[in-house]
Amino acid sequence: MALSSTTEVEQIEQAPKPAVFTERIEIIDIIRGVALLGILILNIPYFSMEEYFSEPWSQDTSNPNFWVHAVNVILFEGKMRALFSMVFGAGIVLFTTNKEKSGRSATWLFYKRMIWLTLFGLAHAHLILWIGDILYFYGLIGMLAFLFRKMKPKYLAMGVPIVAVIGFVASTLFMQNIRGEYLAYKEVKALQDSGVELGDDQLAALDAWEETRKEMIPNKEEVVENTLLMKGSYADVASHIRPKAWDGQTKYLIFSVWDMLALMLLGIALYKWGFLTMKWTQAQYIKTIWIGYGIGLPLVIFSFVYNTIHFHNVESALAFFEKHSINWVALIYDFQRILIMMAHVALVIVLYQKGLFSWLMKGWRAVGQLAFTNYVMHSVICTLVFFGYGLSQYAEWEYFQLYYLVVGIWIFQLLISPIWLKYFLFGPLEWLWRCLTYGRIQPFVRR
């Protein structure tokens, strides 16, 4: 169809263009692909396992589940989400830089992009029924991180420990509130068991703890009920997942902001410093590997052993919090995960620079370019395998067996993503997101 006027041609030429028309940074796509595949390692138990699934083997070193869990906690838990958040932060700069260099404001376009991502996140959580959705949070927190994109890198990096401490304080206050309810409950329960008639305030204390317990610490009967719901119809699963997802997106949102914001700001800083664009020397990356693993691994191993001793089941955790108002060891978490995450990135970059595993790098790059589609694909596959309206395998597998499926999904996405990109410019969800962001149909098929 012919364009009606020269003005229309000029408007299209001057309109902001999506990333397919600009130069992509290959290594960032590779790192995003690594993060995307790595996230599935930590997500899959929440698709497939009942509450307290780890308690029977949490201290049993003869059980393969224990060692698979140990490797996951030490090398991947928190690190992959940190990596994904960091790359998302770098993506904020990538999205806006070229548009702003041409003299156009990218603000409204970026906020449209984040609004649509937030809506995708709501659909992901409440229609596909993934309780661990991050798209909603990235959309909201991305709008906040955008405000800091022009700040000097050193100030952005300084924000990481500050925000980590704020997050620690917020979570500590939250846990202290729960601890207060528990201690009040125990005191009143002792009186009740001794035959003392309870007053209104004491009855209120019992009710307060029961409400908190039911929400956060289901008993064995409730675990069985929840498992039956997850093995039921779509409506049954939704009745269990949606309230929890909504609570996370609203009531507990304040506790999610700090972690993701800090890591997005770190991603912006590392992009500006050239760490994510291979502007550092290979010697600097190797030094990062030594420091990251050299400090981070001892910290996370200590934390893992400490938590295995003190938090191996609900009873031990309650006993700990009854005696301790603050868990200072939790401060280690953010620092060890960032150290190890940085080492992971530096290792991938060094392997890339040396030309090693080129076939794997090609697969990671393609997976990273299709990260949105591949992320939602994880949810579609896992819900259809484990939830009741699919194959109903929920609570049927051993923990270590989950990773046979993880490897299968990895292989599939590493193979299919490059093939897809031979014929199409974007993944289907990436394309839809771009169409909605730019307000017009984008090219999709390669010519």
From TrEMBL:
Record key words, sorted: Membrane, Transmembrane, Transmembrane helix
Protein name from the UniProt record: DUF418 domain-containing protein
InterPro entries: Bact_Transport_Assoc, DUF418
Origin superkingdom: Bacteria
Organism: Indibacter alkaliphilus (strain CCUG 57479 / KCTC 22604 / LW1)
Presence of the UniProt keyword Acyltransferase in the record: no
Residue stretches spanning the membrane: 27-46, 129-148, 155-175, 252-273, 285-306, 326-352, 372-391, 403-425
Residue ranges of every copy of the DUF418 domain listed in the record: 270-439
Keyword Membrane in record: yes
Record lineage: Bacteria, Pseudomonadati, Bacteroidota, Cytophagia, Cytophagales
Pfam families given in the database record: DUF418
